[in-house]
Specification:
This protein has six helices and eleven strands. By secondary structure, it is of the alpha+beta class.
Length: about 230
């Protein structure tokens, strides 16, 4: 147990050492330029395949009061350390009409343990109460500016045109201690209060983005190009 805790601590410290502050909107990760959205920006819709063998999109959850997006993966020790807590939060807040959705940001050609069959196994093992989607092209992760696993995005209620805006971006909490940023944000939503802080620094493993050459080789063109 002590060895496991030590390894986890080292992994977390290593991840934090390479982190960037929330104020840096654009960074380069393995050759991919990644831009973090601003609070209040409109979230892009998506359609991705999940471990339940169905496609999921934002539009499927148009009646949800808010949506929590978790950009994560199978292999990262920081993500693994948060899985039970995020499952607990989902079981607490989804009955209150706050939908959780998780994304695997890392394709199998970058990390073997992040393949789709392994996603199914993890979701079954941990009894994920939310969709777990495979972002195989990484275009959703890139569009949302995901940098770390886990990276949390909370979307507010849909407007008259079905658009949702970012109301919280960042970490789950302060390394498993107070302040519990995500939980506090969800409580503020339910109470009709202002979320504070609205943005924090995500801590965890870097998203394993393909380089431009790898994207072109796999898809025939750069899927990140506008």
């Amino acid at each position: 147990m002590r060895t496991r805790i030590l390894l986890l601590t080292v992994a977390i410290l290593a991840a934090v050492a390479f982190s960037v502050t929330a104020g840096e909107r654009t960074v380069t990760i393995t050759g991919a330029e990644v831009t973090l959205p601003e609070i209040g920006d409109v979230a892009e819709n998506f359609s991705l395949f999940g471990v339940d063998l169905r496609y999921h999109s934002l539009n499927m959850y148009r009646d949800s009061r808010a949506i929590v997006l978790i950009f994560t993966c199978n292999h990262c020790p920081v993500s693994i350390a948060y899985e039970d807590y995020l499952v607990k939060l989902a079981n607490e807040y989804q009955p209150k009409n706050i939908q959780f959705i998780a994304f695997n940001t890392n394709p199998v050609d970058k990390v073997a343990r992040d393949g789709f069959p392994q996603m199914i196994e993890r979701a079954e093992e941990k009894k994920f109460p939310f969709p777990y989607l495979y972002d195989e092209t990484q275009t959703v992760s890139h569009a949302y500016g995901a940098r770390r696993t886990p990276h949390i995005y909370v979307l507010g209620p849909a407007d008259g045109e079905g658009r949702r805006r970012f109301i919280y971006i960042g970490a789950v909490d302060a390394r498993h201690e107070e302040p519990f940023y995500l939980k506090n944000a969800l409580e503020a939503i339910l109470a009709g209060e202002e979320i504070s802080p609205r943005e924090t620094e995500a801590r965890g493993c870097t998203v394993k983005y393909r380089t431009r050459d790898e994207r072109v080789a796999r898809f025939g063109y750069d899927v990140f190009a506008k």
